[in-house]
Write a structure and sequence with these properties.
mainly alpha
Amino acid sequence: MHKLFIGLVTGLFLFSCTQSVKAPESTSNLSDSEKKEINNLHEKVMKIHDEVMPRISEIKKLNRNLKAKVVDLTEDTNPTKQEVTESIAFLEKADKGMFDWMAQYKMPSNPSSYAEAEKYLQAQVESISKVKEDMVNSISVANKLSLE
């Protein structure tokens, strides 16, 4: 089961990395400079994604380790059962955030205007940045608890 999961995560990662970073040809109502700017924003989004996506495996490993550890904890131990349970929830939220973001992200294929495409892509930069922040923070918290 573990190998199947690793294969699935690896497949999703490879699939996500193969997305085209070129602006679609159907944006013919946009000037060349607008197409270039849209492409640059898309590349910025994907750069953030590609930077943090490989850390999903780290999240999965920490999640498994903490779930194994939480069984033996109480509210009197250090770390407490509540702290570890909250860290597990944070890891799971970060993991879900990445996969939810990937499921909804689409490069604008035929925007009605440059402003529409720019607004969408700027929102995506913010969204994937939040996913990155959640992933990095959840890993940091979990690592601290794993070391205690």
